[in-house]
Amino acid sequence: MSEHGRPLPSARGARTGRRIGIGLIHGLWRPRVLGTWRIPVTGPVILAVNHAHNVDGPVLMGTCPRPVHFLIKQEAFVGPLGWFLRGIGQVPVDRSTADRAAVTAALGVLERGGALGIFPEGSRGAGDFAALRAGLAYFAVRSGAPVVPVAVLGSSGRRGTAIPALPPLRSRIDVVFGDPVSVGGGRRTRTVMDEATERLTERLGAHLTEARRLTGR
Question: Most CB atoms within 10 A, among 29, 136, 164, 213?
């Protein structure tokens, strides 16, 4: 139980979510996964994922070798979908304010040695890591956990619409994991946070460029 009275995200639920993700992703598309050896086998880790389509989260859950707890906008947690997302260990976050309950839950995942998934751009967009929010740096500095950049390419389908089309069935989606980046261990001053954000922006952007070169995307 967190200090805000909410249960911490279920590690068992995240393991179930991973199994569901594996079946879903491999059943619908043809994922090609590169660099899984870069993910620490144990211990806390933050996965920083570019975000071009709503399927990016499920794609990562079904291709990452470890169960992942994602920070997901609270608007998605309604009705049966909300019950399902909580059941598989995902974390609702209110993006309009400093959501202390979500922060506590996310730090709890890392404190017990779990994997936390973050879309550092904040919302679905170009998926190019061009504008990182400060949340990624905060969690990295506060927890000391390494950040693994993740590029998901080929998930966005046809562009130019408010809701991009799903990738064609049985099409290839590439998931490329990068080298871990460490920015933790320092004081959480404005200077430290700004420097961490700048370093992460640079490393994530470089990883995306390399992932596109490797995959031909």
Answer: 136
